[in-house]
Request: fold
Amino acid sequence: MDGWVVEEALRRLGTEHRDAIVQTHLRQRPYEQVAAELGIPVGTLRSRVFYGLKALRLAMEEMGLEP
Amino acid sequence: MLLGAFALGDVTEAEALAIRAHLDGCAACRAELAELTPLAARLAWADVDRLDDVPVTPPELEALVFDRLRAEAGRTAETTARSSAARRRIRRRALVTAACVAAAGIGFAVAWATKPGPPRGPLEPVAVRALDADVRDLTADVVPHTWGMEIKLAGAGFDAGATYEVKVITASGTVVDAGEFIGLGETTMHCNLNSSVLREDATGFEVLDEAGDVVVTSSI
Reply:
């Protein structure tokens, strides 16, 4: 699948969800570092990644794609 | 909530062990994980640098768009103007044609040799008599109109190409032009002639040849 489709799905996410996934997974930065930067507990960041993924799945479904 | 990070493979080995242990006994989390796992593969395609590439609007875009719109609007207006000019030209031509037809109608009666259509309106057959030996098969009907009287004249033997004048005679003796027609020789001529004399004011009409001699007379 073309990268732009995933990127478009990511753009449809809320900033908090998108940033959580982008910083921790795509940029492969440590959770502690990202959490500190955002001024949130690591648990909250993990939560944002989890719900961000669920939102990403929904976004892709809305785009008519099988996640 | 470690499940998201686990699905993406972003957990430490120790965390992974703990999660797997939990998953063994938790169907709900396994189902949740099954939904999230495919996303890891999808995300592998994403170019994080491109993600921030929200296309930047060039500063001149607005000007470009509006210039184009104005140009389009101008072209449309021009096209409209052109077509309305063309329409005006056509209308002018139609008016000229109409004027020619009207002139022909006034000075030159329309003598159409086509077969007359079915009679429209009240047709009143009138007596008509040829004073020229060549003229024959004469019939005439008049139609009363609000604007005057129409004469439907048919007959053969009018000299081909010769112009004939039709005049309506009123009760007071006035002679009023009702137009002209051209003879068709042996071919039967059907001609509609219009006069401004009202039916009730008309007592008859005459057809005069080019010499001014009455060749047909009718009393209404």
